[in-house]
Amino acid sequence: MTWMNESIRRCCYRLMCDENEEQQEDLDHKSYEEESAGTDCPAAEDMENKSDIKEQRDSMKEPGSDENSEKTDDSAGGQSETTSEPCEAKDKGEEMVAEAKLKCDSMNEPGGAEDSEKTEDSTGGELETRSEPSEAKEKDCAAAEEMENKSEIKEQRDSMKEPGSDENSEKTDDSTGGQSETTSEPCEAKDKGSLDRHVSGHKEKQSANVSEENRETGRQREMETLLSKLHLQEQYQQKKMSPADFLKITPPMKQSHDTSEKDLAHTFLHRLMRLDYRARYIPVRRESPDAGISQSDSESDSDDTDVVDALYSTTEASDNSEQNDVHPLDVQMAVFHRSDSFLKQQMITKLSQCQYALPLLVPDPLTKELTCPLWTFRQIMKTWKIRRIQDDPKSVSMKSMPICKAQTPMVSFLRLGSLSLSKSQLMNSLINDRHSTFFHRNCPGSTKTHHLMDGVAEIAWYCPAGKPDDSFTDCTAFCNLHGDALLSEKQREILTEKSSVNVVLVPTLEKSHKSAAVITELLKSTTPLIILSAGDDCDTKKVKTGKYKMGLRERTQPDISGKLKGILRKILSGPHSSFQLESMTDVSGIRVDEDDSVCQKGKQAAKKISNLLQGMDISKIKDRFLPCQGQLWHEWSRIKKELHHLRGNIEKEKSQKRQQLEEIRQEQRTASCSELMKSFTESLLSLSSEEKEYFLKWTQIFIDDLATDDLSSILQSYDVTWSEVLDLKNKHDKSDEFTNKQNELEEISKKLQSATFGLEHIFREMGQNFEAHKSEGRQTTSRQSDWSKYPELAADLMISGHMMELMDGDAGHVPLKWISSLLDEVIKKLGDQRVFVLSVLGVQSSGKSTMLNAMFGLQFAVSAGRCTRGAFMQLVKVSEEIQEDFRFDYILVVDTEGLRALELAGNTTLHHDNELATFVVGLGHLTLVNIFGENPAEMQDVLQVIVQAFMRMKKVKLSPSCVFVHQNVTDITAAEKNMEGKRRLQEKLDQMAKLAAKEEACDAECFSDVIKFDVQTDVKYFAQLWEGSPPMAPPNPGYSESVQELKNIILSKASQSDGIPLSHFKSKIQDLWNALMNEHFVFSFKNTLEIVTYRKLEVQYGNWTWTLRSHMLTVENQLHTSIENGKHERVNLSDLHQEMRETYEDIKTDMTKYFEENSDKEILVQWRGRFETKIKEFHEELVKEVKRKLDEVIEQKNACKKMDEKKTEFENKLLQKSKELAHQLKDKATDEEELKKQFDSVWSQWVTELTGNMKPIRDINLEEDQMLILQELGIEWPLVNKSKTSGRYTKISEVGDYSGYIIHKKHTNVFKAGIDKLVETVTGRSLHFEDQEQIRSLINDVEQQCIDDIKSKPVATRGYSPTYLQEVAKNVQKKVTEFESERKYTFKKEFRVDLILYVFDRAESFLSQSHMTYKKNNDSRTYLNSKKTEYYNVFRSFCKGNSSAVVFGEMICEKLRVSTIEAVCNETAIDVAKEMKCRFPAFNGNRLDLEKHVLKSLAEKEDFKAFISYIHHPKNYVETFIKEEVEKYILREIKGKVLDILKKNVGVISELIRTALFTATVKTQKGGTDMWVEEFSTSLKEKLTLGTISCQNFRDLEKFDFLKEEIEKGLKPIMEEVSRLSLTKLKDFRQSPDQILIDQLCDCCWETCPFCAAVCTNSLKDHSPDKHSVPFHRSGSVRGCHYRRTDIMWVEFCTTNVASDRSFYPEHDSEHTVPYKEYTTAGPRYENWRITPDESKLKYWTWFVCRFQTELEEHYGYKFKSYGEIPSELRTHTKEEAIQSLDEMYKL
């Protein structure tokens, strides 16, 4: 029956309250006047009775619900009138109507929207309640009663309005634009007393029956409906919204101003967060353009009469869509209720910035519990100015404080009853008539209904600007209670009690009015009262002291506002009470959000810290409680930077400064555990995540409370002094006064810096504590566990949205250990996420932080007193909705301290700006350059800094992009003006680029040469931030739009970037900062990411080349065997390319995949072309080298053709002779010794007989040839003999001092001759260090060239000739003579003798081995003698009477044994090399890994001679190291991996032979021996070299199965022998594993550093355009460097020198020095090196210098003394530490 009752109720109420527009318009004002004057008593009485009925009905209505609440003054635009009209007697009709209406009211469902009395902010329409003639009413009511019993009820109900319709809701003044009228008609006789009593009693009875449960159910249904509309209930049913939900990159907001209803809440919040005050005015997008417009049923067929009737009709049903719109304040409050306390706080803070009223008292939508959201006000700061003397501008003082602490007068506005004047609009006219601080009925988006604002009290503050036209002279709070104050008793009591002035709006001042009791109570109060009566037209009247009355009728709004301002000024100028937000905690009967336990826990923890700081001078807090970041940290930073600018005795000075750094760290460790830090970190560790957030907020709040007053006074002093300085400067006053004022300003600046105190300083202290303990390098006390957790704590905070300091702006330094550990912890928690780095640069106070906060919802500090100092970073997550559009997971925003900051006035400003700009530009993928104003000329200095920073990035191969942002542009719509501005900016940037190019020695004519930049798309103009003059001006909506457009530009550019992993970002920070520590950034920059990536690429390159080489070795082996077997007579390059094609294509595919799919592909791209070319060149060279080798084999084979032709003859004759001899001696077959004797006796005869007509090849005598050659050169025998006897020549390359080898030429300059003589006397040497090095280089060059020449001679194919050595000797003489011609000395004969003998000695082994090969292949006697054993075995076998098959099988087995050993050894050599290349640590990496293991090996040996050999001949020593390691590996793995390889290859060859035997036997069952041998040999030609197999004496063989068995029987012991082969013999064969690895690993760069002789570690031999480099250099003493014209050893490291301010002589005879910082200009051998400044040093080389100090002094003849003394700190390093340091050095 519920729906039936609802229909009846609607119908009856419609009949009672039908709005007759025609009659109403004529009688509105008349009826009101009659009522006021009391002219028509009967009508008045009638009205009174009807009013009683209405009041009784209202009393039954549900308090607070929309249906039943009495709507108030801000909802109606018209007047509330009661109009009387003449009529006849209508007692009966009145009674029926009243009863029907009463029934309808009693059946009304609580919570419905039909009968709601609208409140002041909800509607813009009119509402009239009228009484019509009795006849009509009787008829209508009767119809209503009859309808209850009819079947058409449902149809009638459906035709009625839905809840919330216009007809059934009683409107009030803030929600409607029409008039609220109750119209009664005068009648003559109307006895109604009994009816009134009946109605009253009936209503009381009905009210008592309405249950609280039903009312709550109704309210809950309304709330759910609203939340459902806004899509808040489903999404956040379990969890409230938090800042994290909005601190993320979401899909770009559409610039259209309307939105769908479901997106209202989120659109509101997003716009609010970017300071768009239009967030409160978001129109809802209609599904149909005609929505909200009702249509006539027969529009097309209507005649004029119908149109007129329709025009005047009031019964036509209208569209409901407008009524169903969500009220803007419902959106605001719905979001407020569904947000957690932190999002509420952000939301209220943003509303305050938008100059909107804020909720002070909020009833719960369901329970109606009253809450004061005090927490949400905690971040609001208000600033205002007070003019003490009216006409004196200098008397203005400024106040800035948290609004919660501000004690201000408060003016409360209350409405008692219903009236037409908009209370909210009146309040706005008092505060800011250009901005709707309080929402009212005429605001855009206002609707006729709202649900969440009744009983809400809002508050706003007026802040004066210190100007004469200020509305009020001091900060004043204004409070507005929404709805009828009569219905919100608790709120009314609180506000009237707390207010300084109460302003009450009433419809009429009559004792009979329901507001009379409240007004009487207010009159009795001591609080000033102003009564505004809508029904009076009287002027302002002072009723009594502090009590005023003013009529509103027939007054304009400006008139009312002006008079009201006057009264308020008068009251507030006298004594008055003050209001403070924090006092709300003392109010009973309400809930304060800060009383929640979680908030209280955070507050209590913060209070402990606050208590420590109470009563202290704010400027001394940091010194007392944060000692690590003050003077100690600043001093540490200063000394650290000085390490890069050393002079004098560098190593000693460096040692002292490093000691000072350690002492400071020790002091920090001692002072690190302050009470404040202990309490702070304990709270972070113990509190839950939510409690922790409260704790941090409260801590900042308490800190701000301490600093507010002090900072305000300091800032005011700064402002005054700065103005005075500017005045004097403009007057060109250079007097003492100007200087004094400047000094005074500097002192204030320092004081301001000391007084600036916030959470960031506590985090900074955590970082310093961590760095101090971390630098100790060992576990210390139990407190260690605390500081070790600091990075994790900070990481949690950073992930949760807190900003973290990246660069300390006070000390001007980056705490690298802290930042690295912090980011490591972030990586642990999030993974190595990719980030897009967005950095911002600009002049101080140009709005950078404000822009970022509005753009991303961040919370960077923006107040003028606490501008960001340094650089701060904050993570912003990319939301899942748009994750697929980006290739990174977060945007990391870096906000910076303003460039050209006034606080940093002085000479350091420019350097500081350069440092900061270069740092953040280098870090960012995109840099926003923020310019305040339209004229870039004002930022010329800063632009130059920024352009120079971009130029530096280009030179170090970093390529950030940039966008210029012009803020505070007055007219951003003027396209022509903007084009002109862009042109000026382009010109200025080009000009700056030219200037920067000169500074950086770079070619650049315009800015686009430096960075990719399009002035049309990369320049954005921003509107002014404020729409008017602060402090009461709201933000400019154009600014918000500009922020959104810029955000879209940023996201568009970001979508094209891959970002960077956090681990790489960490390395980038270190690289940039380490480079910035030096003056020459470009030369100092070491890109760790590039280094790591390049080293990985080198390893991969090694793998690619090894794959090609190993496959080519297999191909070479096969072809070599084929050539030896006569299968190939020539090898073409095309054949080799074909063999390598598949492998090469696989490598190219792998390379493409590596460069295109690697996570570091954006770094790798710079080397792709070069490495693809290198692989191609390597492949070509490899093919050519193998062809050369195989051509030599073919040439050698051709040279041996005559010999090969005779071999068959020799074989047959030897076989025949052996057979004949065996036949003769068959009786002595058992006497082995006799057989041997007989065979030996005839063997020589056989050889002589066979080779009688052939000339034998003689052995060579190299020593005799050498002597003859030296004699021919005129060198005396005694000199040669002495050198040979002493062995002096063998050590010529390792001599430390070559002074004994030279004779100085006579000086033409007597002075220089004297200097040299003096130096020789002092040092005991006549050669400078540079000369020594040049002589050593000469020896190495001559040796290498001569060896190469010798190896190019065809010794193996044509034999040895003494002319080869003659050429070598002459070449040595020539080189020495050329060298002497350019020097001031000549060499003694001893040097020439030793050098020639040294080269002869190095060439001897090659010549001997090559000639032996030639003789073996071409000398018949040698060949025959090599066959002696083989034919003795044949002879012995014949003697034993073995058959031909057995003997033939033994012959084949012998040939198989030799070839099998060779094949197995060659294959094993390749396999061992492969195994070591892949598994052995020293060989499986890049050139750098090999270097590390070489150095480890040297340290373990502690052999000084080995060190010297490595230092002076690094390549030779590395080759020796490889040979030694291969030999050790083989010996170590002889029973392991190597044996397995050997057995595997033996098995392969054995299986190959067995298969060949089977194939040959099967195919030649009916063939002869020749056919069998041919088949057998063919099967093995690819793998084995069998040589000549003579069949002449075995053609009688018929059973090849027997031959097969004999060979297999003989094969078994052969394979066992090969399996037991000593692997040390591997090197005796053509392929040796050590040589294979040497070819692979030593084909790299061997250039040495011109200062310390460190070897370039690039894996490519020619790696141009990359310069030579090495991770860590050495002390100059390692190679014997000494100070010029002294015997003092040079102990410094070149990496330290290039960071110092010292100079050096490029050559020993140079007259001018070159600064170390400009070493690349010193000549060719310097310019190709990249020596990165680094104050650290490798412990390995310091250990070496200390360990072999004596040996070094003896070897080089210089001393570690005076300023070459070894610093004491270097002597503490052990060998273990030295070896360990190698791992640390090469772990990148």
Tell me what the structure shows:
The chain is α/β, with parallel strands linked by helices and 1788 residues long. Among the domains are: 2-215, no CATH class; 359-595, Rossmann fold; 1089-1120 and 1129-1199, no CATH class; 1262-1416, no CATH class; 1443-1639, no CATH class; 1641-1785, no CATH class. It is 53% helix and 8% strand. The chain contains 62 helices and 28 strands. The strands form 6 sheets. It has a 10-stranded mixed β-sheet with strand order 14-15-13-12-9-11-10-5-6-16, sandwiched between helices. Strands 4, 17, 18, 19, 20, 21, 22, 23 and 24 form a 9-stranded mixed β-sheet that branches. A hairpin with an 8-residue loop joins strand 7 (381-387) and strand 8 (396-402). Helix 1 crosses helix 6, helix 22 (689-730) runs antiparallel to helix 23 (736-755) and helix 27 (816-830) runs antiparallel to helix 34 (1062-1076). The chain is elongated. The relative contact order is 0.04. Residues 1-209, 296-300, 316-323, 780-784 and 902-907 have low confidence and may be disordered.
Features:
Rossmann fold; 28 strands; 1788 residues; P-loop_NTPase; alpha/beta; ten-stranded mixed sheet; nine-stranded mixed sheet; 62 helices; single chain
Total helices: the number is 62
What fraction of the residues are assigned to beta strands by DSSP? 5-15%
> What would CATH call the architecture of the domain at 359-595?
3-Layer(aba) Sandwich
Dominant shape: elongated
| Global structural class | alpha/beta
Task: Evaluate the radius of gyration.
Answer: 51 Å
- Strand tally: 28
